[in-house]
Each structure stands twice: as structure tokens, then as C-alpha cells.
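Session log. Operator J.P. requested a structure for one protein chain; no other inputs attached. Running the standard single-chain path with C-alpha cell output.
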Amino acid sequence: MAQKPSIPKGTRDFSPIEMAKRNYIFDTIKDVFLLYGFQQIETPAMENLSTLMGKYGEEGDKLLFKILNSGDFLSSAPDELLANKDYIHLITKVSEKGLRYDLTVPFARYVVQHRNDLQMPFKRYQIQPVWRADRPQRGRYREFYQCDADVVGSDSLYNEVELVAMIDEVFKRFGINVVVKLNNRKILSGIAEIIGAPEKIVDITVAIDKIDKIGIDNVNLELAEKGLSQDAIETLRPLLTLSGTNDEKISTLEQLLSSSEIGMKGLDELKFVLDNVSALDLKSTVEVDVSLARGLNYYTGTILEVKALDVPMGSISGGGRYDNLTGVFGMDGLSGVGISFGADRIFDVLNTLDLYPASTKASTDVIFTNFGDKEAQSCLKHMKQLRESGISCELYPDAAKMKKQMNYANAKGIPFVAMVGESEISSGTISLKNMSTGEQVCLTLGEAILMIKNKKHG
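Structure written below.
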């Protein structure tokens, strides 16, 4: 007996209805990107492993999907590594490529490779899938889409302000209530200085980035394992649970970081973004969160994350500033800042809250029934004019029983059924049935077009 087909864990198939919903997400985000002056690019699904490795930290490297070299990939693997099962060093011998982990590192590679063709500052957006060898769970997938927007070639903090405004516009269009959490990596570096562990900044950010997943007690255990003293951990603990208004949190941080130059610089940057965002009267809640770390090593300034307020879910958008990412590809001094929308998590949130517009639930506006060849040929002529008017339509392909054709229309959620029989052919009309009300009327083609359009846009 043939094995039942399946797909890898952490991946999903999407039905036509689901794809209509996903395209609504992509189109909404794309429209906002264009509204803010971003231009689209695409990069390959796979990159050279040398491009990807070392950009996401040790844990990120473990989550990269590596692609085995073609042919006899073991022929170049040293026997000693094989015998010792030294997979860490073996992987570089048998694999030269990997699936992209995010869109930011490939974008940095793109900027360096095409720098002579780009007008700076360069504002790009990218909507493509990425892959992570993570443990699948609700809201966490091994294959998922990211919708990124980045600005490179500008140090201005107005870019951060614009990105927050763009986030607000996207979620306002979706009807999702969100909180935008803000922090700055320089503030975290300043805190690391104050607690006497500046060399542990990477360990600190990697650990506190998990605070929502494993809780502060487990974060403290991890920090202890990384070599932080108990005094440093105790000093850090209340900072990760700061409460009060944004102004109150800023005031506390000003007192704490007064002796740290880098910490105060990060605080000044955070205040600039907050002040300018506040003046825009956004719908979203904007909140200072000192525990926000964004574990990726390349962030150097502003960091942000977005969470839905009405659905328990991880972050549905995030990003930050990176001042030295292109430096690893031989192009120093190019600052960038960007955000990424998690389309798959947004899909889950919109499903949970049932926030999709009715237009996403049907791909066809009207279906013509089939009474036979003569009638079908007349329908084809009508359908040509409907399509020229922007109305999607289809002809049931077989002259089947009317009940079967109506069941097909119901199953697809098609709002109108058009019937063209001998009497309609002789009078040049269409019998149009509204499937939601059951009302059926005989109309000219022009009248039918108006009725369908009014329903579609009303």
C-alpha cells in the first residue's frame, strides 16, 4: 500500500480561500510600503552559507537549513571529522549553501554587491519566504513569509519615526489593536556596563530576548550559566520589569545610566523617536520596554517589536537599526534600519479575530449556468464584457443538473448566479440571482454589471 503523502512539520498547505486571505495581507502591506516610498527587490531562496553563517549568533546558526552539495558530498569530508561525528566542522565541508534565515542579511549582501547601482538612501521592500530549523509550535513555523522594509545609507532617526508610523498604518488597515514596544541596544550596552559585565552584552541580550517564552527566573538561570555574578543578575532584574508610563521609565533610566556614555546616547535616541512618534497621534500604543532585546547580533540602535493586544501570540512585527551589517561584506560605514512583518502570524491573528473583508471570501463575482452549447456560447460573449468591466466570472463547464451547478456556486461562496436560456437569448437579457437573498431579476447586461459592482463595492 502506498504511503500516505504528508508535508514537513512546521510547513503548511493553503487552500484557495486561505490564499485569498494571504494575498489580502500581502497586498495591504505592499500598498503601505509603496505609500512610504519603498521599492521592491527579490533575492534567491538560497544563499552561500558563508553569507549566512555568523550573522545571527550561535543559536541562529543552529537554526539555518543547510543544503548538501550536489553529487558525492562526502567525498570532500575528512575521515577524521566523519569518525568523530564532528558535525559543526563537517557541515562546511559538505554544504556550501543554505536557505535564507531572514531577508535582512541577504539584503545587506545585495546592497554591497550592487552598491554602484543604488541611489542612497535606498528604501527597499521585500516579500518572500524564509526558513528556520526551529521547533514548530503555534505561531512558529519552519517556513514562513516575511514582509520587510529597510532604509540604508542614512543615520537619521526620522527613519525610525517613519517606520513606526508605517507599522501603525498597516495594523490600522487590518483592524488589529497592537502595542509597539521600543528599546535601544545602546541602552542595553549601558546597563551591561553599569552591572559590571560589558563583555557579556551578547549573552545578556540573547537571554533576555527569551523572557516572554521562559520567564525571568529561567532567564536569570541562563545568565548565571553564562558567567554573570549574582550581584549583576540582581541589579539587572528590576530593570527588566520596569513599570509606569514611558516618561517614568525614561526618568528611571536617566538616573541609572548617567555614568554610561553609550547608555545615555541610546536614551537620547529613544527619547527622540518617542517625542516625534507622540506628535503623530497614532492609533497604536507605543511603549518603552527595557526587556526588549531582539536577540540578533547585528542590531546596534533602536529596536522594536509589535504584539497584538487581543490575541495571545508572539511578536507579529519587529526590527531595528544596524550600523555595521554591511561591514562583514566589505562595505563599512553604511547605516540601516528596517522592520519585518510576520505575515503568517498576522494571518493567524486575522483568522482568530475574523477581521477579513467579505471580498476575500470569494474569488468569483458571478457564475453563468450551462444549459447547453447554444446558451454557453451566448454566456461567453456576456462574460467577455463583464471581465472588461472588472467583474470576475466563470461558466460552469458542463450542462449538468441545475442543483449541481447551484451547489457549486454555494460551495465557492459566489454571490451571483447568471442564467441565460432561450428567452434571455431572444430578449438580450440575463436572469441574475442574488445568492444571499434568493432574489432573481431579469436585467440587461449593463444593468447586471451595475448590480454586481454595487454589491461588490458596497
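Operator note: The CA atoms of residues 291 and 383 lie 58 Å apart.
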